[in-house]
From TrEMBL:
SUPFAM superfamilies: NAD(P)-binding Rossmann-fold domains. The lineage of its organism: Eukaryota, Metazoa, Spiralia, Lophotrochozoa, Mollusca. Transmembrane segments: none annotated. This is C-factor. Belongs to the short-chain dehydrogenases/reductases (SDR) family. One of its GO terms (molecular function) is oxidoreductase activity. GO terms for cellular component: cytoplasm. Keywords: NADP, Oxidoreductase. PANTHER family: NADB-LER2, SHORT-CHAIN DEHYDROGENASE/REDUCTASE.
Amino acid sequence: MLPPRSVLITGASRGLGLEFVKQFLQVPTPPEFLFATCRNPDNAKELQEVAKSSSSITIMKLDVSEMNTIEEAKKLVESKVGAGGLNLLINNAGINKKVTLETVTPDMMLDTFNINVNGPLFTTKAFLPLLLQAAESSTPINPSSAVVNISTIVASIALNESTTYLEYRVSKAFLPLLLQAARSSTPSNPSSAIVNMSSIMSSIARTVTSDAVEYRVSKSALNMLTKILHNELKDKGIHVGCLHPGWVQTDMGTAKAPVTVSQSVCGCIQVMSNMNAENACVLTDYTGNPLPW
Ligand code: NDP
């Protein structure tokens, strides 16, 4: 998509959301308006520091589980962007309680669903008039309005099927990476392709356990929501897609994760900039690899 004039990110207080804010300031044509939203702006100290470096950043309160904060944020964005509308909404905020079939409770399911599914749904609905305004200048080849939902490979139903199927998908998807890695690697300096590959392999390995049942079910629902929104909005010039950011070193991903926030977000922004009518609604990882739903 075109370099977006305006971008809104949910969950920008830390992790991937904060890194999206930092990296959008570094792209060749940074957005004129960068709305960094979080549920407790007063506690988001690092975000406040980043905002001191650029007048394009507006920090706003937006708790994706509280409709009134979504509506207030929408009014503020509207007053700033004017007729140009909102070009890019990144539904990044999410939670993962990491519970198993043994420990999960009804409240945990509802709480997670509320933030991971209702959050992106009602945030997108609230900002739809502004996304439509931005879409008015879209062409089919180069959309000027998009919604990106941050999903995860561990919500893929296809990758939870038989081991044979898993092996088939892995070898098919990773053959080009393996060849690339073989060409550029040395024992002391493994290539980025190997790092990427090990990240996805680790994530796939994690899909076949019953861990994080509430998280994975909610993100599978987010994938379906992405399809529904895509089907509804594609003819109106808004692309809706979803991204797997890799297994990333954040509070959620833990320090054991193989991918840094910088690598992940750099890849995600690259994938977003290549988004078009054909590839928009495909579950894609941060390296641009399509993944089975
Ligand atoms: P973190 O736990 O590091 O950060 C989560 C962010 O979401 C925080 O900014 C948090 O805000 C915010 N948040 C939580 N609840 C709400 C809410 N009700 N309203 C607004 N914001 C909220 O996670 P990551 O940065 O790792 O994850 C970002 C996204 O990437 C998530 O959707 C996650 O599912 C997805 N993802 C992450 C992976 C990983 O390996 N890290 C892998 C695959 C997907 P606060 O500071 O107030 O708590």
